[in-house]
């Protein structure tokens, strides 16, 4: 029974032979005959040579690959049509959602060709930007030499700190003479990516004593060991400076020194607390690059000095500051010390490069960056960058000395022309000294030219062949010139002489001696 059933079921060799007899043909149209079938049978039986079957298999594989290629091409064309119809068409959901944000970028749409729709153009630009960013990140040339970066160290805290009225703590550093012998108090707010340790880099203690200067530098909120300030602005920055001076016992007027972007905080103190300021020194001062009172020529002359990367960072700070941490964490917040000109995106002059190669400068720069980034967050740096390019709340022409008269009408205006009883002098009437390197590429001379135009009372010291760092960093003669211009001839610290006098009052018992301190300026 089983044998009969087995005889009734054809083997797979017989089924294959019947299919071949059923009319399968070669490509030329000739039917597959008995010879072909015997060839297949010989292959199955293992007795044939297999040349004809091998040739047929090649043709089948080739046809299979061609068919798959055609299917993939059809699939790609179909996907392209789907994308065009669902994503890029005028009535698609993506275009409808992107059209409104793209309309807000009208100031950028001016740079697009007139025949391009912003809703279509900006997604393409965005994806091209991502591709370019990926190429820059991973397409480095192995032949170029990569400098070995030093790792930033974390030092134990040890700064002196004072408590401000709002409960925050501000870290500071004092150099020079003591408070009771100081002839002049000089407060120095630091610049970007700096700290209280900067002060006046390399200033000699003997020079401070010769002029009787008490030098105070401090960490801005969020920098070094100072507590952050949530609502920080230039007004609060000026208040912090005044509160620090009061906490340190500086009750009289003090001098200010602002270097580079630190001059921004000096401008703020001049604006909000002019009665506490005795005078101001600024070295390579920086202003808001979007200052409204600058002429078109002054603005163009200033911006043309900066490379595209620096302009792009100013643009981000003004429009999209939330993107700045991405760049900061890849540079000075990466845990490694990068070359100074690299993170500044500036090609420095020869004299600045010579100063930067000095081991003393390198050590100072590394220690200053380590202290500046102590808290490991990008927030204070973003705040500083945003303050630089945002509305300061005042303009530099406000510091110009000018007569302001109270006029309630035409009659009072005519009377003010002949009488000064209703007029007062407004502006900043204290000394302003500015030192500007003519080879400075960070704060170009055009900035100082603008300041000199709007504040003609300022004394400008133009320094040929000097850059951004060469005059201020580790230059004993330069520091002496600055102090001489501010304080005149050196008079030394205040000498304190203690006089012990005995007083005898009549008709009363002797009360002993009393100590009276008299202060004389030597």
Q: If you had to describe this structure to a student in words, what would you say it looks like?
A:
This protein is α/β, with parallel strands linked by helices and 522 residues long. It has a domain at 158-405 and 424-494: Rossmann fold (3-Layer(aba) Sandwich). 44% of the residues lie in helices and 15% in strands. Strands 2-3-5-4-6-7-11-12 form an eight-stranded mixed β-sheet, sandwiched between helices. A two-stranded antiparallel ribbon has the order 1-8. Helix 5 (93-104) crosses helix 7 and helix 9 (234-247) packs across helix 10 (263-272). Residues 23-57, 496-522 are annotated as: Disordered. This is AB hydrolase-1 domain-containing protein. Residues 186-473 form the AB hydrolase-1 domain. Residues 39-54, 513-522 have a biased composition (Low complexity). InterPro entries: AB_hydrolase_1, AB_hydrolase_fold.
Molecular shape: elongated
What characterizes the major β-sheet?
Answer: 8 strands, mixed
Q: Identify the CATH class of the domain at 158-405 and 424-494.
A: Alpha Beta
Query: What is the count of β-strands?
Result: 14
Task: Report the uncertain regions.
Answer: 22-53, 140-145, 498-522
Gyration radius, to the nearest Å? 40 Å
- What is the structural class? alpha/beta
Overview features:
alpha/beta, Rossmann fold, 8-stranded mixed sheet, two-stranded antiparallel sheet, 20 helices, 14 strands, 44% helix, 15% strand, elongated
């Amino acid at each position: 029974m089983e044998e009969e059933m087995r005889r009734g079921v054809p083997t797979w060799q017989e089924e294959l032979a019947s299919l071949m007899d059923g009319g399968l043909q070669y490509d030329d149209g000739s039917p597959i005959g008995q010879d072909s079938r015997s060839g297949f049978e010989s292959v199955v039986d293992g007795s044939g040579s297999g040349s004809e079957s091998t040739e047929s298999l090649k043709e089948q594989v080739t046809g299979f690959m061609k068919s798959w290629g055609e299917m993939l091409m059809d699939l790609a064309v179909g996907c392209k049509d789907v994308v065009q119809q669902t994503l890029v068409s005028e009535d698609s959901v993506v275009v409808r959602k992107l059209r409104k944000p793209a309309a807000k970028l009208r100031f950028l749409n001016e740079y697009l060709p007139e025949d391009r729709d912003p809703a279509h153009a900006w997604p393409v630009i965005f994806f091209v930007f991502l591709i370019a960013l990926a190429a820059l990140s991973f397409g480095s040339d192995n032949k170029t030499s990569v400098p070995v970066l030093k790792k930033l160290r974390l030092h134990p805290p040890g700064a002196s700190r004072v408590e401000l009225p709002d409960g925050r703590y501000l870290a500071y550093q004092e150099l020079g003479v003591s408070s009771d012998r100081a002839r002049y108090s000089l407060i120095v707010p630091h610049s970007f990516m700096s700290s209280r340790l900067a002060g006046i880099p390399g200033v000699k203690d003997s020079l401070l004593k010769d002029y009787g200067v008490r030098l105070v530098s401090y960490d801005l909120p969020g920098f070094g060991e100072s507590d952050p300030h949530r609502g920080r602005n230039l007004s609060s920055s000026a208040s912090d400076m005044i509160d620090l001076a009061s906490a340190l016992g500086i009750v009289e007027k003090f001098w200010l020194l602002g270097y580079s972007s630190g001059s921004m905080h000096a401008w703020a103190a001049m604006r909000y607390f002019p009665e506490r300021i005795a005078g101001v020194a600024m070295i390579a001062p920086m202003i808001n690059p979007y200052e409204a009172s600058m002429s078109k020529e002054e603005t163009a002359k200033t911006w043309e000095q900066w490379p595209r990367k620096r302009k792009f960072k100013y643009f981000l700070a003004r429009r999209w500051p939330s993107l700045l941490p991405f760049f900061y964490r890849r540079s000075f917040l990466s845990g490694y010390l990068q070359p100074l000109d690299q993170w500044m995106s500036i090609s420095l002059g020869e004299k600045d490069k010579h100063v930067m190669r000095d081991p003393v400068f390198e050590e100072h720069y590394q220690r200053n960056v380590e202290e500046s980034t102590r808290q490991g967050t990008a927030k204070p740096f973003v705040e500083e960058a945003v303050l630089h390019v945002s509305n300061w709340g005042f303009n530099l022409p406000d510091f110009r000395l000018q007569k302001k008269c109270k006029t309630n009408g035409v009659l009072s205006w005519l009377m003010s022309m002949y009488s000064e009883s209703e007029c007062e002098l407004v502006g900043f009437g204290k000394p302003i000294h500015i030192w500007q390197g003519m080879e400075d590429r960070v704060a170009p001379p055009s900035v100082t030219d603008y300041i000199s135009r709007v504040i003609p009372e300022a004394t400008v010291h133009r320094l040929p062949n000097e850059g951004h760092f060469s005059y201020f960093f580790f230059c004993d003669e330069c520091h002496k010139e600055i102090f001489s211009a501010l304080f005149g001839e050196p008079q030394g610290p205040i000498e304190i002489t203690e006089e012990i006098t005995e007083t005898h009052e009549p008709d009363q018992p002797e009360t002993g001696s009393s100590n009276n301190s008299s202060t004389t300026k030597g």
